[in-house]
Amino acid sequence: MRSVTTLAASSLLASAARAQVVQMDIQRRELAPKDKLRKRFSTYTEVVSNDESLGGYFATVSVGTPSQNLTLQLDTGSSDIWVPSSSASVCETTNSRSSSSSGCSLGSCKYYPPPAGPRPPAASRLQPTDKLSRSRLLLVEHLHGRRRERVQHIVR
Amino acid sequence: MTMGLGSETDIAYGLVGVGYTANEAIVGTEQSLSAAYQNLPALMAKENLIATNAYSLWLNDLDASSGSILFGGIDTEKYEGDLSRINIIKDSSSGTYSSFTVYLSSITANSSSGGDSLTSSDLPIPVVLDSGTTLSYLPTDLATQIWDEVGAEYYASLGAAAIPCSMATSTGKFVFGFGGDEGPKISVGMDELVLDIYTSGNNPSFSSGKYKGQEACEFGIQNFSSTPYLLGDTFLRSAYVVYDLVNNQIALAKTDFNATATNVVAFESSGAQIPSATSVANQPTDSATGSSSNSGFGASAGFGDGTSAAPAVPRFEWAQVGVMGAATLFMLVGSGFFLL
Questions:
Q1: A29 band by pLDDT with thresholds 50, 70 and 90
Q2: Considering CB atoms only, which of B10, B22, B57 is closest to A76?
Q3: Residue B153 contacts A where some CB pair is shorter than 8 Å
Q4: Is the dihedral of CA B40, B47, B58, B99 positive or negative?
Q5: Which of B81, B88, B235, B239 lies in disulfide reach of B248, CB 3.0 to 4.6 Å?
Q6: Considering only CB atoms, which chain B residues are within 8 Å of A85?
Q7: Which distant-in-sequence residues (6+ apart) come within 8 Å of B309 by Cβ?
Q8: ∠ at Cα B86 (B16, B21), nearest 5°?
Q9: pLDDT tens-digit series, residues A84-133
């Protein structure tokens, strides 16, 4: 289409003559082999410990700032991560400050001596963004003499 | 990462819940699915740490000190045979996927003396594959048939069915079939179903009844009178379970106990199907469509094999009432009281 080409050429020349610059960027697109471009997704393995006295499988995770190591039960039957507050009554009754007795010895529920200076309230230590006001009924197992209690309970 | 703080609780440890976001506490509290947040596995997928919201659970056997959860992949060295994938069932009241519920279609008791396919009008049963529950809970009808096979009995003082600890070496097993006749079948041995009552110290002894004086253990299958029925750790240890929260499927295969080799295959993209898993045809779509018939307990005697216990008392079989004389009938009702 000779006429169009001429028109285009003349308009380019015209703009050059007026010292305007039309910049056309071109990008070189490299067509790499498909394999190289395919993102390789990772997998993550978490070892869970079989705690027969508590009747479940537990993962040790580091939570919060400053971080605390907690041992939490891996539960495909629920969908939230939650930790007991150090001020929960079960911790007060079972905790003996030596941290060697009962489920609290797993580190999920410890007594923290007040640090020097202003102490943040327990709730903010882990900076939860979602306050649980009611939780799914958890069925846990109860047997006489067995440490793990199996009762229906509600976590607040 | 969103997590909750339990200010009032009666268990002294916390949880990592990895289920559907629809099952988060906040959804129940606010009665709204839109209140859901991205929980751990959902967040991992969203942040492209893994390709898709899926993970595999390998609990290994009862005596193993640990198992593993593999986010974003499967490990082909941790199971035997092939993975079969079956559909997760939606929650009937909410119409959403909120729990790992699948159809348990069949239970067969196998031993040296025979195989009994247990029947119940409750089958197929919706069961939740729940790692957070120690034991397994089936409808009373099926639970009592299983107890009859192995000689377990319910003790009110314990609040559970108990069995002599010597039965842990029984060579009998139960095969759980899922997703219809063509679905995966998982065999569970008695070594996974006989648990210490006290994990430190000695178990109590039966103080009366036919097991008087024998060490008492807890049986891994208990009864519930209503849904949800649960297959907990006593079942899950025997299976390699892949949870796919995007395609709403679960794949099952027989676990490879104490496997040491590893071959991780990652899910390759968001929404990818479970790798190396075959689909299952003719899966059930309703529960409780079965019928009850008298399947007998031919396998029961064989459950004594491998144990050092005295032979089990002959079962009281309704079918034989008209045949056997009253003098040879043994009542099954046990009412032992534990020395705790």
A1: low
A2: B57
A3: no
A4: positive
A5: B88
A6: 5-7, 9
A7: B164, B166, B167, B214
A8: 30
A9: 887 777 776 544 444 433 334 334 454 333 333 343 333 323 222 222 22
B221 close to B136: Cβ distance less than 8 angstroms: yes
Contacts of A54 in chain B (CB under 8 A): 13
The residue of chain A with its CA nearest to that of B6 is: A84
Q: What is the per-residue pLDDT for B324?
A: 37
Q: Does B110 touch chain A (CB under 8 A)?
A: no
The amino acid at A30: E
Q: Among the listed ranges A26-35, B65-74, B126-135, B302-311, which one has the minimum average pLDDT value?
A: A26-35
Using the predicted structure, report yes or no on whether residue A152 has a pLDDT greater than 80: no
pLDDT band, residue A145 (cuts 50/70/90): very low
Average pLDDT score over chain B = 88
Nearest CB to B243 within list A44, A75, A76:
A76
Contact B233 A56 (CB under 8 A): yes
Euclidean distance between CA atoms B175 and B161, whole angstroms: 20
Burial class of residue A116, CB neighbours in 10 A (0-12, 13-18, 19+): exposed
**What token pair was written down for B333?**
């009702």
**Is the confidence at residue B214, as pLDDT, over 70?**
yes
Q: Report the residue of chain B nearest A108, measured CA to CA.
A: B13
pLDDT at B94: 86
Cβ–Cβ of A84/B29 closer than 8 Å?
A: no
pLDDT at B147: 97
Quick check: B19 pLDDT over 90? yes
CA B305 to centroid of chain Cα atoms: 23
Q: How far apart are CA B41 and CA B50, in angstroms?
A: 9
Q: Which of A72, A76, A88 sits opposite B8 (nearest CB)?
A: A88
pLDDT at position B158 is: 85
- The tokens describing B202, both together, are 């000695």
Interface with B, mutate which of A38, A41, A140 (most B CBs under 10 A): A41
Residue A92: per-residue pLDDT = 65
Which pLDDT belongs to residue A155? 33
Cross-chain Cβ contact A73/B132 below 8 Å: yes
CA distance B229 to B241: 18
Q: By the CB < 8 Å criterion, does A48 face chain B?
A: yes
Non-local CB neighbours of B172 within 8 Å, separated by 6+ positions: B109, B110, B111, B112, B149, B150, B189, B190, B299, B302, B303, B305, B306
What is the least distance, in Å, from the CA of B327 to any CA of chain A?
Answer: 37
B15 touches B132 (CB < 8 A): yes
Q: Residues of B with CB below 8 A from A50's CB?
A: 59-60, 62, 64-67
Tokens of B310: 């005295």
Q: What percent of chain B has pLDDT over 70?
A: 91
Tell whether A112 lies on the interface with B, counting CB pairs under 8 A: no
